[in-house]
Amino acid sequence: MKRMSLKQGVLFFYICDGIFLLLLLIAFLPFTQKNKAPSVPTALLNPNYRADVFAITISDAEASITLKKKNNVWIGMSTASNGNYVWPADIQNVENAIDSAVQIMQVQVKTEKVSSWKSLEVDDGQATSVTFYDENRNVLSHIFFGLKDSLSQKICFRTWTKSTVYEGMTSMESFLNTDESFWADPFLCPQCITGYDRMSSESLLRRGQIQNIAPRDGLPIDFNLKKDLENGGYIKYAIYRKDKEYIVIPTLMPGPAASEKDAELFGTINYRYSISSVTLEKLLEEL
After folding, report:
1. Number of alpha carbons in the 13 Å side-chain half-sphere of residue 162
2. What is the mean pLDDT of residues 150-155?
3. Which tens digits make up the pLDDT trace of 171-189?
4. Is 264 left (phi over 0), alpha (psi -120 to 50) or beta?
């Protein structure tokens, strides 16, 4: 019998080893699949409730944002200012957040144990929660979001009615934000008073960060400006210099076609934000 060479022997060994590993993989694959949590379709908010959403709160350990729909206008406030300031909300962000909540997604059960809430960061003290309300302040959905897996990009969450913790990928994660500047209308001429079409807005100048500060009593105004709008309304800007930026306090006055309720609503809007010297120059050019 012809004897195998050393090279042939090594090759034969690797082939046998590969076959053995393949057989092991095939043997354990059904067991692995059997123990893998089944995927189930769900939504964070019942799609049938989409049109019923009139208020949203987003809360974490640092702050809480409240968004409310009044007269088809979305306004917002934050615990960062103790609710003293009310700003027009970014309608696109609000609508996109609701769309994300009603989107059907595939999730797996992570655990059924309440004792696991803390380690998965879905307990009351660590989670970022999102609550949707209807016009009568009835809770439509209340979700607690926690730990995110850096590899799978899946986030753990639980609902307010069950102890079960689920895991899945959701675009709602982009809206787990309690920063006022993220939720407030980004324009110097808010869309609530000019119309909800960004491309046809009368001004696309953008504000800086929302500021929860008030100028000290007696501080003179550096610029007192007024911008007339095509709908007959106008915006007044009280502008104060602060270091290398400017603090703007806008006053919104709707046009004559606005209802009495709209006029009252705009009267409650009270907020301020920063702008750069470049933005101020462009605003002056528009007036």
Report:
1. 12
2. 90
3. 999 999 999 999 999 999 9
4. alpha
Residue 156 sits at the vertex; the CA angle it makes with 154 and 159, to the nearest 5 degrees, is 135
The residues, ordered by sequence, that sit 6+ positions from 11 with a Cβ below 8 Å of its Cβ are none
Residue range 23-40, pLDDT digits in tens: 444 444 444 444 556 778
Residue 22 has pLDDT above 90, yes or no: no
Q: What angle do CA 87, 91, 93 make, to 5 degrees?
A: 100
33-47, 69-83, 219-233: least confident range: 33-47
What's the Rg (C-alpha) of the chain?
A: 28
> Closest Cα partner for 127 from 189, 61, 171, 222?
61
Please choose, from the candidates 68, 76, 176, the residue with its C-alpha nearest in 3D space to the C-alpha of residue 122. 176
Burial class of residue 263 (count of CB atoms within 10 Å of its CB; 0-12, 13-18, 19+)? middle
E strands within the chain? 39-42, 55-59, 64-70, 73-78, 87-88, 105-111, 128-133, 139-148, 155-159, 165-168, 223-228, 234-242, 245-253, 273-275
Three-class SS state of 264: helix
CA separation for the pair 170, 192 (Å, rounded) = 29
Amino acid identity at 100: S
Give alpha helix (H) positions in 64-170: 91-102
DSSP designation for 85: -
* DSSP type of residue 143: E
Q: How far is CA 98 from CA 146, 173, 196, 271, 286, in A?
A: 19, 12, 17, 25, 35
